[in-house]
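Our consortium's second objective concerns turning raw sequence data into structural hypotheses that experimental partners can test. To show how far this objective has progressed, the report includes one record in full. It was chosen at random from the queue rather than selected for favorable results. The single chain below, 158 residues long, was entered without modification.
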Amino acid sequence: MFKKYLIVFLVSMVPLIELRGAIPISQGFQLPLVESYIVSVIGNMVPVPIIYLFARKVLEWGCDKKYIGKFFTYCIEKGHRGGAKLKEKAGSGLFVALMIFVGIPLPGTGAWTGTLAASFLDMGFKKSVIAVLLGVVMAGVIMGLISAGFFTALFSIF
């Protein structure tokens, strides 16, 4: 059982998959939803401080390197685009916009991208981490409901 929880934890740390993939995997393992949710949220949040503090610096350092430059440039551009979209739509409600951006369980809108965008916007470490955490919690609830069959049951009623 520990091995299954470890897999869920590690999957929730992977960019693009994150908690959005870890919760359905946990249900495939037939693990309890609440425990899986907690493990997934923690796993999804572990990289966030590292991303905020170091990713931007590493990407800027590597964007002119021969083999990794194109990929690093792509990541910088993605961070700038995500940040610009958030800032444009949110105005002064940047905290809520970041939370919703991370909370929508779609590829490319998770904690990794949200944290990178927050670092490019110079949002502040504490504010960014809290907004991302609330977004991850929201995405986890949505994915938990989907995985538990809530929407399937709801649609079968109507």
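The partners drew two points from this record. The CA atoms of residues 99 and 132 lie 6 Å apart. Residues 2-157 form one domain. Both points have been shared with the crystallography group to help prioritize constructs.
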